[in-house]
Design the sequence.
């Protein structure tokens, strides 16, 4: 590829979409015309029980396939920089790093209670055919039957579930399917954020720190111009004030603290036990720009 890909890493509902879209309003930055490309990332690792992939899962055929898909998109879009955001990638940084050793990673972390509350709404949301069809365009032909059966099962599970939830949604962390049998949905959403955040942070901390930029969602939406300028500096891109203003035009802080509208005191008590240790550790480190390299 002409330029190294830019990989946005973060748990589902952490604001990764708005960060990706903000970057892609800048000339030269492009992304796929759908929400995520998890079908591409999982090709030839299709039947793995979770989204936790390691470098060993990046076989030569996997590397060739994914590189080819990125290069094809770059040529079709005319992108100088390909930006990719698939939330399950928070569980497979070593896998991606093996495929794209020159990739740049942007880690976005959001308040855990806000994420869990928002994620629960997606677990129980109605079917969105247009959204599904946009992503389905990127299913490899050999994988269509598998995903068709998986999709049907997921929807049937929602019909018969007491919580009216899907069988699965978002990044599947190791042990999630067992947790769904014993825990409430809000607890699983909290664990989903916790596992994605801890695994991603620890994996990213093993990389060359010049390849990784970390930021909080709350800082981004409260001062998007300042935070985007730091992102562009990380990507070695100079922008004018007008270019930055156009890029951040749709960034809003209205979702900060939304969990207070949707969670009961009992749910908050359960959720706090899961997310607060991570908030006090990893979130605070990122917010305070504590060096993240283990080297």
Sequence:
């Amino acid at each position: 590829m002409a330029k190294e890909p830019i990989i946005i890493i973060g748990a589902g509902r952490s604001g990764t979409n708005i960060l990706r879209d903000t970057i892609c309003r800048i000339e030269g930055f492009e992304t796929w015309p759908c929400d995520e490309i998890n079908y591409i990332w999982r090709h030839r690792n299709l039947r793995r029980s979770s989204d936790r992939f390691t470098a060993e899962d990046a076989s030569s055929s996997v590397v060739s396939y994914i590189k080819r898909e990125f290069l094809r998109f770059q040529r079709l879009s005319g992108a100088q920089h390909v930006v990719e955001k698939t939330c399950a990638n928070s569980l497979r940084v070593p896998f991606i790093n093996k495929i794209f050793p020159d990739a740049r990673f942007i880690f976005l972390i959001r308040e855990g209670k806000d994420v869990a509350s928002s994620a629960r709404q997606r677990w129980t949301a109605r079917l969105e055919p247009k959204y599904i069809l946009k992503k389905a365009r990127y299913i490899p032909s050999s994988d269509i039957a598998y995903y068709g059966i998986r999709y049907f099962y997921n929807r049937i599970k929602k019909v018969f579930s007491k919580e009216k939830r899907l069988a699965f949604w978002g990044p599947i962390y190791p042990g999630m399917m067992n947790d769904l049998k014993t825990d409430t949905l809000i607890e699983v959403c909290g664990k989903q954020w916790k596992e994605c955040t801890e695994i991603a942070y620890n994996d990213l901390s093993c990389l060359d720190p010049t390849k990784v930029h970390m930021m909080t969602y709350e800082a981004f939406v409260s001062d998007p111009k300042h935070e985007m300028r730091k992102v562009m500096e990380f990507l070695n891109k100079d922008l004018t004030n007008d270019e930055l203003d156009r890029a951040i035009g749709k960034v809003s802080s209205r979702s900060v603290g939304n969990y207070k509208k949707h969670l009961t005191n009992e749910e908050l008590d359960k959720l706090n036990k899961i997310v607060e240790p991570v908030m006090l550790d990893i979130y605070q480190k990122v917010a305070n720009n504590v060096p993240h390299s283990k080297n």
The mean pLDDT is 95. The radius of gyration is 19 Å. Residues 265-287 form the longest helix (23 residues). Strands lie at 6-9, 29-30, 81-85, 104-109, 212-216.
